[in-house]
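hey can u run this one w/ DQA bound, need the structure tokens asap thx
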Amino acid sequence: LTVLVLNGPNLGRLGSREPDVYGSQDLVALTKQLGEAAPDGVSIEVRQTDDEGELIGWLHGAVDARTPVILNPAAFTHYSYGLRDAAAMVTKAGLPLIEVHISNPHARESFRHNSVISAVATGVIAGFGFDSYRLALDQIIRTIG
Ligand code: DQA
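ok here u go:
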């Protein structure tokens, strides 16, 4: 089993971007932590893009390959109907798609309070730093691992 961990815009700057909000660890550290948390037989593929079309293409690929998805849509969370429609294809195909956020968007600016993704996600985990991803991985393992 492979679990795709997809990250949207500006998350390639983790570690140096607003460390007070997102912490001081980078995507390499996230990849290592998730790899260590994954049980035998489960491989983790962490990707990041600033490009909406590329992220949508990765969701299409998840449908075709029947791969569960952990998705941090970053700022696309709040306005990308294209990403939402692609996320809906994943869950309508019967695959889990868990929306994650490092910060708790509800405790931040009002434009972050709405997610156009959540209604088509299997579930949402936010506010636990990198542990948001690990909790999502645990849930995917519990349900299909
Ligand atoms: C984020 C929250 C979003 O509002 C923001 O645009 C991000 C990161 C998070 O992980 O906390 O880029 O998705």
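The longest helix spans residues 52-65. anyway lmk if its weird
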